[in-house]
Design goal:
The protein has 83 residues and is mainly alpha-helical. The protein is built from four helices and two strands.
Length: 83
């Protein structure tokens, strides 16, 4: 991965593929539309799976934190500070 936490996609047999493989910082494909499309599908499924894990693991905490009752307390507190 690069400093921006993004992974590279490089074509096989280009020289750069050796660095990407050695440093484990991306994907190497035989560069054509089919392989690129399949890689993007794989990446998006991986992202969606990780996102769903996060969503399913925190709803109770999030609901409590952002409930109407908590928002009411927060807004009332802000108004009191303005006085």
């Amino acid at each position: 991965m690069l400093m921006g936490k993004r992974q590279l996609v490089v074509a096989a047999n280009t020289g750069m593929d050796k660095i990407v493989k050695k440093e484990n910082m991306g994907y190497i494909i035989d560069f054509n539309q089919t392989n690129f499309s399949e890689l993007l599908t794989h990446i998006f499924k991986k992202i969606a799976k990780n996102f769903m894990k996060k969503v399913l693991n925190c709803p109770a905490r999030a609901y409590k934190k952002y409930s109407w009752e908590e928002m009411k307390k927060s807004i009332c507190s802000l108004y009191e500070e303005l006085n």
